[in-house]
Design goal:
By secondary structure, the chain is mainly α. The chain contains 4 helices and no strands.
Length: 90
């Protein structure tokens, strides 16, 4: 017999899939020029500086930048699409 133990529901550490903390935490705090950079191409890998800034905003210490580039996942792109719809982006 085996069992699974779920982690805490509010675990804000980076996830192995995207390598980023939850977007709802860092996107509203990300500086506007960096938001614009991400918005230019949502499918492009994020620059290492942007990833490091995201970690800093979420107070994730000691995490090396993931190798091979970090890309936004489907849920993160959907979050940004909803955010753009709700916010006057000019």
């Amino acid at each position: 017999m085996s069992s699974l133990v779920d982690g805490p529901a509010n675990d804000d550490r980076p996830r192995p899939g995207s390598g980023l903390p939850p977007i709802g935490i860092w996107w509203p705090m990300l500086e506007r020029p960096l938001q614009r950079e991400v918005l230019e191409d949502l499918d492009a890998p994020l620059r290492a500086y942007v990833v490091r800034r995201i970690y800093d905003l979420c107070e994730v210490d000691g995490e090396p930048n993931p190798r091979g580039g970090v890309r936004l996942g489907t849920n993160e792109r959907a979050y940004i699409a909803g955010w753009m719809h709700a916010v006057d982006w000019n």
